Amino acid sequence: MTGEDITSFLKANPISVACGALALTLAAGIYFRSDRVPEGEALLDQKATLGERIDANLKNGVQLADQYAAITAARQQIESRLIHPDEIAKNLQFFYKLEADTGTKLIDLRQNVLNGKPGAKGKGYYIPVGYSVSVRGDYIHLLDFLRRLESGQRFCRVQSATVGLTGSTDRDRGNDLTITFGLDLLGQP
């Protein structure tokens, strides 16, 4: 085959020759780019995951302002119920009010040395502030004292309680009991 035969063949079959050349070019391109397919799939998976996360964030972010306001209000409510360990007189007033409301008599009331370690500065951890409380009264009044203590304005956890009869010889005080609590009130450092 000479050069004239090749040119005459190309002129006689231009579409076939063009399709053959295109097929060879595509086959070469696929062969040389086939090693990049796994990279492309990994990139596609990464972009799909990012897109799903952004879509979920958009759906969940609709009520974000309302949820933030609710959490802020709840935090303020919690912090209003906390005590400050260094405000001893104000803290003891809580127990004196319970005494007056329930008709019991406080025998002993002491704030213990702080047994909890405050959190790191700015972290907002809460600490337990321990108290030793001894109260005298009849069974109903002592039960009312305990109920108000546990469900009152402060967060309280009773660690221990000991109930005993009052050592009084007075006939009017024959039904009195004494209860000694070891309890913690939740406080801010």
Report on the structure:
With 189 residues, the chain is an alpha+beta fold. The chain folds into two domains: 3-63, no CATH class; 88-187, Alpha-Beta Plaits. The protein is built from six helices and four strands, in the order αααααββαββ. It has a four-stranded antiparallel β-sheet.
Key terms:
189 residues, alpha+beta, Alpha-Beta Plaits, 2 domains, 4-stranded antiparallel sheet, 6 helices, 4 strands, 52% helix
List the helices and strands and how they pair.
Layout: H1 3-12, H2 14-33, H3 37-60, H4 64-80, H5 88-102, E1 105-111, E2 127-137, H6 139-150, E3 156-165, E4 177-187
Antiparallel strand pairs: 1-2, 2-4, 3-4
Helix pairs in contact: 5-6
Spell the H/E element sequence.
HHHHHEEHEE
The biggest beta sheet is recorded as: 4 strands, antiparallel
| Separate helix tally | 6
- Quick check: average pLDDT? 85
Radius of gyration: 41 Å
- CATH topology of the largest domain, by name, is Alpha-Beta Plaits
Number of structural units classed as domains: 2
